[in-house]
Design goal:
Structural class: alpha/beta
Radius of gyration: 18 Å
CATH superfamily of one domain: P-loop containing nucleotide triphosphate hydrolases
CATH class of one domain: Alpha Beta
Distance between the termini: 14 Å
CATH topology of one domain: Rossmann fold
Shape: globular
Helix content: 40-55%
Bound molecules: adenosine-5'-diphosphate, guanosine-5'-monophosphate
Largest sheet: 5 strands, parallel
Strand order of the largest sheet: 2-7-1-8-9
Strand content: 15-25%
Order of helices and strands: EHEEEHEEHEHEHHEHH
């Protein structure tokens, strides 16, 4: 089958800020390989410890708007008052190399990616058991001001309305259990029937 595998695949994660997407991905990376994490571009200020080119590409509003005009983004959105976007070029390259391309993007980005790349995309919505626990995690993470946290909590209430549009839903209560679930989904996303070229499969199968 491998020679008929014509393209890479996308694993798209969304969920309220602070639900544990980055923590889960760290666990997943210990187990899976041949993946490419899509580093987004943002106009948000870097948090302490965040590095340009590792966590995000941190740019100015002018630079971001120039990239929009140039058509450089697969998708982009304004989230919590800042721009965030996924650059097209590195994604195309990783897909060409048959990698599992991992996105951590919001529900607006999800809608854009699904419209353009549904066949190769598997989507997962992740959240905490309760909104109270989300608040606890945002305060415990201690990376954002009270005002920023309140905005994120308020946006989370709108984001959760999207859960039934996703393929999978993970409640990140126990990190170990949730990361095992995410590993299973990552593996399944690579054997989705719609990734394959039906005509090629049948031609070879009939040989
Ligand atoms: P996100 O990437 O979704 O914004 P993070 O991975 O930064 O979220 O996690 C937010 C905070 O919650 C961090 O302090 C992290 O250590 C903590 N956290 C993540 N998963 C769990 C979990 N299952 N139980 C308790 N705390 C968690
Ligand atoms: P944070 O500021 O906590 O890193 O991210 C805030 C939100 O922006 C999260 O919901 C995250 O998934 C989303 N996000 C990060 N990168 C992108 C992106 O490239 N596009 C879109 N649409 N959302 C993004």
């Amino acid at each position: 089958m491998n020679n008929l595998y014509t393209k890479g695949a996308i694993l798209l994660l969304s969920g309220p800020s602070g639900c544990g997407k980055s923590s889960l991905l760290k666990e997943v990376y210990k187990i899976i390989n041949n993946y490419h994490f899509s580093i987004s571009t943002t106009t948000r200020e870097p948090r302490i410890g965040e590095k340009h080119g590792v966590d995000y590409y941190f740019v100015t509003k002018d630079e971001f708007e120039k990239d929009i005009k140039n058509g450089d983004f697969l998708e982009w959105a304004e989230v919590h008052g800042n721009y965030y976007g996924t650059s097209l070029k590195p994604i195309n390259q990783a897909l060409k190399e048959s990698k599992l391309v991992i996105f951590d993007i919001d529900v607006q980005g999800f809608e854009q990616v699904i419209t353009k790349l549904r066949d190769i995309t598997t989507t997962v919505f992740i959240t905490t058991p309760t909104i109270k626990e989300l608040e606890n995690r945002l305060y415990t993470r201690n990376t954002d001001s009270k005002e920023v946290i309140e905005k994120r909590i308020s946006n989370a209430k709108a984001e959760i309305e999207y859960i039934d549009q996703y393929d999978y839903f993970i409640v990140n209560d126990d990190l170990k259990i949730a990361s095992e679930q995410l590993v299973s989904i990552a593996r399944s996303s690579l054997v989705k029937a719609s990734l394959y070229n039906k005509e090629e499969i049948i031609k070879n199968w009939n040989k």
